[in-house]
């Protein structure tokens, strides 16, 4: 990802999008994941569909999250474990959790 894309991602200021209810992100590579860590969606987000090597740390701040779909590393490429997930106790309204391996290179 170049500097231009990084600036655009940060300029989106997702944390200020208070009417945003669902978000879908696909991340390939650790460099992009570091940028995604900085976007911080609004805390009232209810749905997250995420494809990447691990979930961003800000997932634990999404107290209103009801649906989480995580497509993580496949068993063949990486040791997929619950360490990729936030503590479920920090997601008190979670109703649906879907975890699947995703076949792309990180």
TrEMBL record:
Superkingdom of origin organism: Eukaryota
Limits of the R13L1/DRL21-like LRR repeat region domain: 6-100
A Pfam family per the record: LRR_R13L1-DRL21
InterPro entries per UniProt: LRR_dom_sf, LRR_R13L1-DRL21
Gene3D superfamilies given in the database record: Ribonuclease Inhibitor (3.80.10.10)
Name by which UniProt lists this protein: R13L1/DRL21-like LRR repeat region domain-containing protein
UniProt organism field: Buddleja alternifolia
Lineage, uppermost ranks: Eukaryota, Viridiplantae, Streptophyta, Embryophyta, Tracheophyta
